[in-house]
Design goal:
- The chain is of the alpha/beta class.
- The protein has 2 domains: about 65-310, Aspartate Aminotransferase, domain 2, CATH 3.40.640; about 315-440, Aspartate Aminotransferase, domain 1, CATH 3.90.1150.
- It is built from 13 helices and 16 strands.
- It has helices at about 5-25, 50-65, 70-85, 95-105, 130-135, 160, 180-190, 240-250, 300-315, 315-335, 370-375, 410-415, 430-440, and strands at about 85-90, 120-125, 140-145, 165-170, 195-200, 205, 210, 220, 235-240, 275, 285, 350, 355-360, 385, 400-405, 415-420.
- The strands form 4 sheets. It has an 8-stranded mixed β-sheet with strand order 1-9-8-5-4-2-3-15, with helices on both faces. A 3-stranded antiparallel β-sheet has the order 7-6-12, with no helix packed on it. A 3-stranded antiparallel β-sheet has the order 13-16-14.
- Strand 10 and strand 11 form a beta hairpin.
- Bound molecules: pyridoxal-5'-phosphate.
- Pyridoxal-5'-phosphate (PLP) binds near residues 93, 98, 129, 222 and 235.
């Protein structure tokens, strides 16, 4: 018989050792190593963690639940509390979140589901897996232009995207910069449209006093390491609508209708597990094998969720650090506005920046490539802005789509934008180093 006292003691010893291991093997290694100008690579993003994430992961392994379990539920509860949303469904990536959200709106269980060939308005300057689930669901993405500076969909162009097949708007808050959601929601309400907010880059961003991800019918989140919190791979779908949540849950879990938590009771808390009527069968069937959707398996594991719990406890401080780092870069680059287009945001927005985006104006005496090569030489990590214009990406060249407005600004993003980091792992030494590099390049 296992002795509970011994088990508990051993567990505490293991966790203490994990803490010790963190301090030896992680605390001053890799990204945590002292910064040596010109030698240390300045990442644009990365995991920011301490012994608590390692201990949480090890505890989850000791419990060995492995699949979606009690920690996924606790992590969902924390996210619901942080966002003030009724439901959070954890998934294995932000891309899976987008797939689940879009597929949910195709469900025959809805009164007015989206039908094949219906249109979804979205920007072409975007991350590919915002567009992919529109196409994968037999829907038509309708592209309207964005704005250089905010890099978000231009909400003044939404009406131009409208047709008698328009059923939804799918808006990403690009790089943490909130879309003008009052305009999006007013447009959607006027035309009876669904709204999905891709909040993968914007956990912690606020628009008009309300968290991004709480305006639309559904919202998605990513916990990939460069994002505001990390579970390694991971994501979530949020909603205040219990019906949409149930359908999203079903789509995530193989298409299974059953919603019971079987952890405490093998027969399910509903008490009717084996009483479900399948039409035409003449006898009840097991609700656990009762499928109301053509689904996937996109669940987050308990080990991933375990790591998310100490991460979300740090979210406020991460958001504050991102804002501060952004401000330092913004103020430092203000003198170069004639040669660099600095980020812009709505007066109603309080962005928890994912990154710091710059565009090189056509009038600049250098190209984006030259700036990028210079930063690369100085070991400062850059990224171009996702797909730029998704229609220029080979995988998307032949998708069924409609271009509703000229994509002039989108093509400027494709040709001139790049971003650098503001993540909480950046300290004053790195920020000063980056500003010095810009000064050296631009002087
Ligand atoms: C706007 C946006 N949507 C979706 C995703 C996909 O998230 P994931 O990498 O977790 O699949 C990303 C990824 O960074 C993103 O930036």
């Amino acid at each position: 018989m296992p002795n509970d006292v011994d088990v508990s003691r051993l567990r505490q010893e293991i966790l203490a050792k994990v803490g010790e291991y963190y301090r030896l093997a992680h605390a001053s290694q890799g990204q945590n190593a002292p910064f040596v100008p010109g030698e240390t690579f300045v990442n644009y993003g990365g995991r920011v963690y301490d012994e608590r994430e390692l201990q949480a992961g090890v505890e989850a392994i000791l419990d060995f639940w492995l699949t979606d379990g009690p920690r996924a539920e606790a992590f969902s509860d924390d996210l619901e509390a942080y966002l003030g949303l009724k439901h959070i469904l954890t998934v294995n990536s932000g891309s899976s979140g987008n797939l689940v959200a879009m597929t949910t709106l195709r469900s025959a269980q809805l009164d007015r589901p989206l039908q094949a060939g219906d249109e979804v308005i979205t920007p072409a300057a975007t991350f590919p897996t915002t567009v992919a689930p529109i196409v994968q669901n037999g829907l038509i993405p309708v592209f309207v232009d964005c704005k250089v500076g905010t890099y978000n969909i231009d909400v003044d162009l939404l009406e131009a995207g409208l047709s008698d097949r328009t059923r939804a708007v799918f808006v990403p808050h690009i790089l943490g910069n909130p879309v003008e959601m009052d305009a999006v929601m007013a447009f959607a309400a006027a035309h009876g449209l669904y709204v999905i907010e891709d909040t993968c880059d914007a956990l912690g961003s606020v628009y008009d006093g309300k968290p991004c991800g709480t305006f639309g019918h559904l919202a998605t989140f990513s916990f990939y390491p460069a994002h505001h919190i990390t579970t390694g791979e991971g994501g979530a779908v949020g909603t205040n609508d219990s019906r949409l949540h149930h359908i999203a849950h079903t789509i995530r879990d193989w298409g299974r209708d059953c919603w019971c938590d079987y952890r405490s009771d093998r027969n399910g808390e509903c008490g009717h597990r084996f009483d479900w009527e399948i039409p035409g069968l003449g006898e009840p069937y097991d609700h656990r094998y009762y499928f109301t959707e053509i689904g996937y398996n996109l669940k987050m594991t308990d080990v991933q969720a375990a790591i998310g719990i100490p991460q979300i406890a740090k979210l406020e401080s991460f958001v504050a650090a991102r804002k501060r780092n952004f401000r330092v870069l913004y103020e430092g680059l203000l003198p170069y506005q004639d040669r660099l287009i600095l980020p812009k945001w709505s007066p109603k927005a309080d962005p928890a920046w994912f990154a710091f985006t710059l565009a090189v104006p056509e009038t600049a005496p250098f190209t984006r490539r030259e700036l990028n090569d210079y930063l690369k030489e100085r070991k400062i990590e850059t990224r171009y802005l996702f797909a730029g214009n998704i229609l220029h990406q080979p995988g998307y060249a032949n998708i069924p789509h409609r271009v509703a407005t000229p994509l002039t600004e989108t093509d400027r993003v494709l040709k001139s934008a790049l971003f650098i980091g503001v993540y909480p792992g950046m300290d004053d030494a790195r920020l000063d180093y980056m500003l010095q590099a810009f000064e050296d390049f631009l002087a």
